[in-house]
Amino acid sequence: MPDAENRAPTIKEVADHAGVALSSVSRVVNDHPDVSASMRRKVLASIESVGYEPNLLASSLRRGSTMTIGFLISDISNPLFASIANGASRVLDSTGYAMVLTSSGSDAAKDEEMIRLLRWRRVDGLIVTVADEERPGTIAELGRLDVPVVLVDREIAGLPDASVVRTDHATGMRAATTHLIREGHTRIALITSATNVRPTRDRLAGFRAAFSAAGVAPPEDLIRLGSFSATYGESCTTELMHLADRPTALVAGGNLVLEGVLRGLYDLGLRIGEDVALVSCDDTPITQFHSPPITTIARDTERTGEVAAKLLLGLIDESTTGPQIEGLPTRLLVRGSTQSRHVPAARA
Amino acid sequence: MPDAENRAPTIKEVADHAGVALSSVSRVVNDHPDVSASMRRKVLASIESVGYEPNLLASSLRRGSTMTIGFLISDISNPLFASIANGASRVLDSTGYAMVLTSSGSDAAKDEEMIRLLRWRRVDGLIVTVADEERPGTIAELGRLDVPVVLVDREIAGLPDASVVRTDHATGMRAATTHLIREGHTRIALITSATNVRPTRDRLAGFRAAFSAAGVAPPEDLIRLGSFSATYGESCTTELMHLADRPTALVAGGNLVLEGVLRGLYDLGLRIGEDVALVSCDDTPITQFHSPPITTIARDTERTGEVAAKLLLGLIDESTTGPQIEGLPTRLLVRGSTQSRHVPAARA
C-alpha cells in the first residue's frame, strides 16, 4: 500500500496514474462491457499500484443499482437447474452483474420468502422458477417487485409484465408418445409433477394429442401427476407395474422422476427395453450412459439460462420494452430403451 | 399501501402496529435466527399492513455488513459443485446470509478476477475452490481480503488464516487401488487433473501407497495428470488402451473424467467389468445406474458445503478464532465394474 498516511487512495489517483479519464476507471471497476482489453489491463494495473479499493456497495446506493440479479430456483443440486444457472451466469459475468442464487428446496412456501428477501436486497432484476404458479402468496410477492422479472418455464396470469422463456415441452412429448404408439404401445404411463407448473400442462397436452392423432383414447388411468421427485417416480412405478393391466411403456416427466422410475424397475427385476419401454425428459448423463441408453425428450438448458439472462438485461437497460416471450425447442432422441431390439450401451 | 401522502412507512410504524420492540422488527427483517415463529409471523403481517419496505442495502452500509457470502467454484453445472453449493445454501438460508455465486469456468485466470469483484462487493466472507492453488495472482487476491475465507478441498501455503474443509481423498484412493490389486490387477491407470490442486496430490499418494503396501512398484507409466475435463478423460483412455502393455483397470479421478473414460471405452467397444475394470470418484447417478454399476470412491458433497458454510459463519461471528481444518471421509463402494462376475444393473 503506497499511502503512508493511511488515507484511502481515490479513483482520481487511479485515473492520473493510468493517464485515462475518470469515466474509464469507473467503467472498468463496474465491469462495463464496452471496455477494451488493453484499457482494462492498464486500469487494473493502476488500481493495484495505487492501492485503490472500490466500494461497489457505496456506489450501488449512489447509482440506485446493486448490479445484482436474483435467481430463484427450486433445487440447485438438480443438474437441470444447475445448467440453467450456469448459462445465465455466463451471460451475466461479462456484464458486471453478480448472481444472488437462492433456492426454495421445492417448498412453495419458501418461494414467497425468497422473493421478498431478494426485493429487500434491492436486486436489479429476478430470474424465477417457482414451485407453484397458482400460489397467491408467491404471485403477490412477485407483484410487489418494481424491477424486471423473467420466468423460466412458468406462466403466471397475475404477472403480465414478466418476460418468459418457454420450452416447447408439448411438441417433444407428442413426438415421444407418437414414437411409442408406432412401436406398438397403447398402455403408456406418464409420471410427472402436478399441473400447477407449465411444463406439466404442456407435457400432458402433448401426450393426449399424440393419442388423439392416432385415433386412440389416451390411457387416463395411467397418468400420475404428483411431483418432480425421485420418491414419487419410484412409488408410482411400483404401483403402476403391479396393475393387472400394467403399462408396457413409461414416460418419466423429469430427470429426478427418472431416477425413481429406474429404482422401481430394478427392484421389480424388470428389464428396460425388454420388459418395459422407457422415455425420459432432459438429456442427463444417466440417459446417455444407461444400458440400453434411454430415449429422451431433450432441450438446451444452458441456452435457457442464457436467454433468460439476456431477456432480463434487455428489460433492465430498457433496450427492450414490454414483456417478451422466447420459445425454445425440444427434440426427441430415440435410443435403445424404446426399441424392441436395442443396442447395448451405445453412445448417445 | 395505506399511506396517502406517499411518505414511506417507517420501521417504527411496523413496531407500533405489531406491538413489539423496534429491535424485534429489525431481527425479523434481517432474518436473524433468534426469532420465534410467532414473532416472525406477527412482524411480517405488520410489515405488510403498514406497507413497510426495508432497504437491506442501506442498512448494510450502516452496519458495515452486506449479509452476503461469496461462493467461487469452477463450474456450477458440474453436479458435484452444485451439490456443495446446495449444502452451503441450506445452512446460509436460515441465517439471513445470501449467496453470491460466481464461477471461473475452470479458467484459473478468472479466479483472480472473481475474487477481486467479490472483495469490491464487500462480501462478508468467501467460500472458494480455486482452479490452481499455485497461481500467484489468485494467492495475492485472496491475501487482499480482510474477511474470512474457507477453502474447499484446497490448500494454499500463502494463506495461513483460511479455514479448510478437506476430504480424505487419499484413504479412498488407497482402498480402491488395494481392492483392484486384490482382484489381480497391477496394470492400473489413474486419470485425473494436475497436481496443483490438493485432491490430485491426495489421490496420487493413496494410489502409490496401495502399491507400496502390496510390495508392487506403482505403474508410473500409466499415470495421467492433466485435467478434470471429460475431453481429457476420453483422450487419455483412447491413448492408454492402445498401449502394447495396456492397463487392465482404469481409475477416473473425477466425475467429468469418468464421462470421458466411458465414451473412450464405448468407442473402442470395450466392455466395462469384462474387458477392463473401472473405478470412479464421486457417487453420481451415472455410477449407480450404469450397467454394471461402477465401483466408486464416494464422499458426502452436501455435507462438504454445510461444513464450509458453518466454518465461515463461525469465523464471521467470531465464535471460532483462528483457522479451522475440518476433515471429511471418503468410502469405497465396490460394485460390478471391478468384479469379474458382475451383477447387471443392480441397485447401488
**Estimated helix fraction of chain A:** 40-55%
Total beta strand runs of chain A? 12
Shape of chain A: elongated
What letter string, H or E per element, gives the SSE order of chain A? HHHHEHEHEHEEHEHEHEHEHEHEE
Instruction: Kindly name the structural category of chain A.
Output: alpha/beta
Distance between the termini of chain A: 56 Å
So what's the oligomer here? homodimer
Low-confidence stretches of chain A: 342-348
β-strand percent of chain A reads 15-25%
Main sheet summary of chain A? 6 strands, parallel
Order of the strands making up the biggest sheet of chain A: 2-1-3-4-5-11
| Total of helices of chain A | 13
The greatest interface between two protein chains, and residues involved on each side, is:
A-B, 53 and 54 residues
Tell me the radius of gyration of chain A.
Answer: 25 Å
Average pLDDT number of chain A = 90
Attribute tags:
homodimer, six-stranded parallel β-sheet, 348 residues, 13 helices, six-stranded mixed β-sheet, alpha/beta, 12 strands
Overview of the structural elements:
Chain A is of the alpha/beta class and 348 residues long. Helix content of chain A is 44%, strand content 16%. The first copy, chain A, has 13 helices and twelve strands. In chain A, strand 8 (249-252), helix 11 and strand 9 (277-281) form a beta-alpha-beta unit. The longest helix of chain A has 17 residues, at 198-214. Chain A is elongated and about 80 Å long. The N and C termini of chain A lie far apart (56 Å). The model of chain A is unreliable at 342-348 (pLDDT under 50). Chains A and B meet through helix 4, helix 5, strand 2, helix 6 and helix 11 of A and helix 4, helix 5, strand 2, helix 6 and helix 11 of B. Strand 2 of chain A pairs antiparallel with strand 2 (98-103) of chain B.
